[in-house]
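ping. complex inputs:
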Amino acid sequence: MKLDVILCHYGEIGLKGKNRSYFEKMLQENIRKALNRFAPDTFASIGRMYGRLIIRLNDHGQNEIESITAVLKNVCGLVYFAPAIKTVQDMETITKLAEKIMATGEYATFRVTARRPDKDFPISAQKINEDVGAAILAVTGKKVNLSNPEKICFIDVVDKRAFLYTERIHGQGGLPVGVSGKVLSLLSGGIDSPVAAYYAMKRGAAVSFVHFHSVPYTNEASIEKVREMIEKLQVFQQKITLFLVELASIQKEVMVLTAEKYRIILYRRFMVRIAEALAKKQRTGALLTGDSLGQVASQTLENMSVIEEAISMPLLRPLIGFDKLEIINKARAIDTYDISILPDQDCCALFVPKHPATKARLKDIFIEEEKLNVDDLVQEAVANIKIEQFD
Ligand code: ATP
Ligand code: MG
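pong. complex structure:
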């Protein structure tokens, strides 16, 4: 009596027609990629059936339920999944199996929850609940509790088969990575930006990353950190591109030629310009940062709008309403926190002003940028970009 399939449930409402089929195919493909990478040779096929996906495990996979579960927990678009036993649509067989799976485990109360999308099967869900419930009660002597049982025997009668299971495991929810288009995320090495990228992935964006560094004026620590972060984020999206941009030559110009208090904003405007140029080349429709309203000087409403003014592409800020503690908790959950807090030499900390402007006015910024060859500097930075593939 081995768990030989995993039923995968997604929950986005309003998925109809073509969208639904696209969504399902993407989810199917993402599960395949994640399992192939993190729990290889565990399944024979992944099929679609009546509002859910079914992973058919091979012999090896049936002994690897725990590692498969760990992988599926990170697949975006899965609301919950259930390792299950597949059997025939026959009441006697179903009942015998239910008795068996409910014979083990420490619990006092139970209920049966049957669903019967296959109306060819002549027995109603209610009748299945009653009859199988009575059989389990007779064999185990446990008590029935319909409203708050300690253990549930689920029976799904669907797709010409019956599936029995006792555990539903929560997935990430959201949408499968890839169904919502592409986003270019500005990844700093800090705590916030990887969390922001995670939330975009969770809503179905395929995310690539750009990191700005000041090597050789700093060490390579921040680059090493973003590489390690991306490896962590690969549990959600396996194939990731990282663009590394050298910012030092721009920073030198800014430092020498412009007023000190606007430096951070000027750097940021360069960053988003370079990122936008890159995004356009990659046919990516939006940028993304880890800004949270009011967290630091560059993240006041005034400064954010001055930074954003430099580009026309949408700039997404999924963390805008998050408190630092909430962001930290999520960073821990996605396992990027320990990397984020490692010491590095942030490119902006290098030439940071003592008193940064918190409410920059656009016309003052324009005056500063008049002193620079903005277009040339952007083009030069884009031309020198280094690309790394994570796959
Ligand atoms: P984080 O924890 O993400 O570094 P932060 O609180 O330190 O954020 P800032 O330093 O103001 O805030 O950065 C705001 C956002 O700008 C970051 O979340 C990130 O998206 C982007 N950013 C900042 N520095 C860099 C960098 N060196 N490379 C790429 N993106 C950056
Ligand atoms: Mg930072």
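DSSP finds 15 helices and 15 strands in the chain.
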